[in-house]
Design a protein that fits this description.
The chain is mainly β. The chain has one domain: Deoxyuridine triphosphatase (dUTPase) (Deoxyuridine 5'-Triphosphate Nucleotidohydrolase, Chain A, Distorted Sandwich), CATH 2.70.40.10. Helix content is about 5%, strand content about 40%. It has 1 helix and 10 strands. It has a 4-stranded antiparallel sheet. The chain is globular and about 55 Å long. The mean pLDDT is about 95.
Length: about 140
């Protein structure tokens, strides 16, 4: 599969894969951004992508950024019809200010095929063993 990527700014960096076989492609910060404790910040990448019909781009955390910096991706579904800049929204879950420097890996995108469903209203849905059980429905041990 081919993913078309357009630089929206001359100094933007194209996404890359870190290793052969990696599922997620890395996106890079276009500029320095300070993330204050408990606050969100938008990080521009300076690129737009053309995701093929029938696929979606899913934005996920970089493990090194979440483990080492306490940053969490907020949102993250890029539909195939979107042609604007890829902007990452990160939340600083830590208690220290973090600076995301220009050119630093900020998040990763996985391109995934999906099924589009016909939404049908019904009066009831089938029962299962789990039923309406939520958190802890399998026990805590």
């Amino acid at each position: 599969m081919e993913l078309k990527v357009k630089k929206l700014r001359e100094d933007a960096k194209l996404p890359t894969y870190g290793h052969q076989g990696d599922a997620g492609m890395d996106f890079y910060a276009k500029e320095d951004v300070v993330l204050f404790p408990g606050k969100q910040a938008r990080i521009h990448t300076g690129v737009a992508v053309e995701i093929p019909d029938g696929y979606v781009g899913l934005i996920w955390d970089k493990s090194s950024i979440s483990f080492n910096m306490g940053l969490k991706v907020m949102g993250g579904v890029i539909d195939s019809g979107y042609r604007g800049e890829i902007i990452m929204n990160l939340l600083n879950t830590g208690d220290k200010e973090v600076t995301m420097e220009k050119g630093h890996k900020v998040a990763q995108m996985i391109i995934q095929k999906f099924e589009h469903c016909d939404i049908v209203e019904v009066d009831g849905i089938s029962d299962t063993e789990r039923g309406e059980g939520r958190e802890g429905s399998t026990g805590y041990n």
